[in-house]
Structure of ATPase:
Amino acid sequence: MYESYYGFKEKPFQLSPDPRFFFASNHHQRALSYLQYGLDQGEGFIVITGPIGTGKTTIARNLLNNINDANIVAVQLVTTILNPHELLALVAAEFQIEVEGSSKAELLQGIEQFLIRLNQQGKRALLIVDEAQNLPSETVEELRMLSNFQLDNKPLIQSFLLGQEELKGIIQAPDMEQFRQRIIASAHLKPLSEAEVKEYIDHRLQQANCNKEHVFDEGAYAVIHDKTGGVPRKINIFVDRILLFGFLEDLNVIDVEAVNQVAEEMEIELTGSLHAKPISESTATQTITTEIEAASLDSIKSTLKEVEDILDTTIKEKVKMARYVDKLLKQKNKELSQSK
């Protein structure tokens, strides 16, 4: 869509985590350093927490992408609410461990034998558990029990836990003392500062091989930070939409006015729809009559104004979509004529 217009070789603000687009803010770099430190230690738990969309999964994938040690066999779990038995089954499946039965004892035996074979080959296992806040405390405790698998006083498996802020509450519970004593490092991710938002956006544009010197006006970055709170995932969604808007409006440089207009459009899309419960015709007539009798003239005018605004926005969106389709058709015709 807008990629060729702005000279990108790919979309710079995709939602799916991509290690190539990893941006090392101060907090993200510290978290990554803790993960790397834990990896070098080869034992204990590393815990990374943070609000939704702050980049925990991206950090994990960046770490996996940059592991140069062929002796580390790593898998990543994206968990839901699992009991201890289900967790063990998932661990066995991700490590591709063949287990004869499905009982907990058989799963544990199969996992232990697999880890011993890895150790004999000079290798060790790394388990990265994403969305760990979904795990009940007894399942987190099962992870601790897995860390008890040792050979020659060396742990056979290591675990990293990444989760939303609720994970801290699970770990801080009174009955989790033994687990807390196994944590060798932890970090909490925070949203990006205003300066980091600018660096983040410019970094992703550069990774997409942007050939323009300026895509955003300097003042636009502050508005983007204000509207997204500095949360990377929200920035991706918002800026992607802004770039589409810039393409449709033939903007060479996106300014504050454009950013505010997109923010207003997105706010209306999310919160401006009308919701009504189905009611019978007689009830509807009675309700309308009662409301008209009770409502003041100013209230009726206000309601009509709101409806008018919503209709106006809908018409604008229809026009914009028509322009967008027309623009795509012209672009396709141009490409076809050039290929002849």
Observations:
- Residues 297-339 form the longest helix (43 residues).
- The chain has a mean pLDDT of 82.
- The beta strands are 45-49, 72-78, 124-130, 150-151, 154-155, 157-163, 183-188.
- The longest strand covers residues 72-78.
